[in-house]
Amino acid sequence: MRTERNLTRRLDRVFARLDREPERPAHIDVPRMSRHRVVLFTATLAFYLAIVWAVVITSWLVRLDWQVMFFRPYQQWPQIHAFLDYYVVLGQRGPTAVMVAAWLGWRSWRQHTLRPLLTLATSLLLLNITVGAAKYGMGRLGPHYATVIGSNEMMRGGDIFPSGHTANAVVTWGILAYLASTPRARRWLSALSAITSLGVGLTTVYLGTHWLSDVLLGWAAGLLILLALPWFEPLIAKAETALFDLRDRRRARRGRPVAEPAVPVMPVVLMPRGTAAEQPAPAREPVASTRTSRGLVHLAPGPHTARSERTPVTPAGSRRPPHADRLPRGTSQPARPLTGG
Fold first, then answer.
1. Is 31 within 8 Å of 229 (Cβ atoms)?
2. First to last CA, the chain
3. 214 with 55: CB under 8 angstroms?
4. What pTM does this model have?
5. Is the CB of residue 178 less than 8 Å from the CB of residue 31?
6. Per-residue model confidence as pLDDT tens digits over 201-221
7. What pLDDT band is residue 32 in, cutting at 50, 70 and 90?
8. Does residue 236 contact residue 118 with C-beta atoms inside 8 Å?
9. Closest listed residue to residue 162, CA positions, set 119, 96, 208, 216
């Protein structure tokens, strides 16, 4: 009997935690273009332009590219070739976008907001435009198709400068850190995305598909997109509002009820057993029905109580007389005084 009660208590706590929603979107810190971010963006843009200029004038960086290519890392360490063939997939656009979109889609569903998915779509669109334009604009050939030793291989119909694998790894995995809701999660995810993108870039150099300068420019291109995202936050908010309005109009035309804005309630407080009936219910605050309150999240209405803690109630219309002296299960019956017969 005691084992069943302990199991019931644990299950009640698990369900109460599952009912709790994450932090409300209205309280999530949306990054802004602070002075520190502007300085980082300017420095990264200067680094980007310096790499392009160093390759265009065939400087020492191009000579380093050829030295690394002739070194042929895939022949120096062939034992890790099979592993890196799979690891480089973390920089491919299709698989990484599907994995990250699945996670951000779950977050959007839990938080009743489209911002995570819209932010990912915006970053990938910027990635395709900027990196794609640079690739076809400079037309650099890769190491496997180089024609003249020591040349920069520019304007020859190639499409490998900057490295798309590296830029995609920086943006796709870095967007998780950008959308993190706590500073601690943002630090850990930033470090993880930096290590992942660094490994993807070096893997392309190992496999001989990119020059070293391609990887450097890919890192800078991806970082520029992440740093510039706060400029697009107002556009993302407008797009989210427009999509919600479109959904409401479609539901109205089909005769389906339009979803009402969520009403915030007090968070769940787990109380000791036997005290649920003694605590007053938390009062709900009135909320005006505005568009901005649509993104608020439903929190759990109250703690889950075990079956043994619920007060028995006589159903309406029942022929059984109400028992005012009945007590909830698990409580001891008061001792009756002994009377002499």
1. yes
2. 37
3. no
4. 0.68
5. yes
6. 999 999 999 999 999 999 999
7. confident
8. yes
9. 216
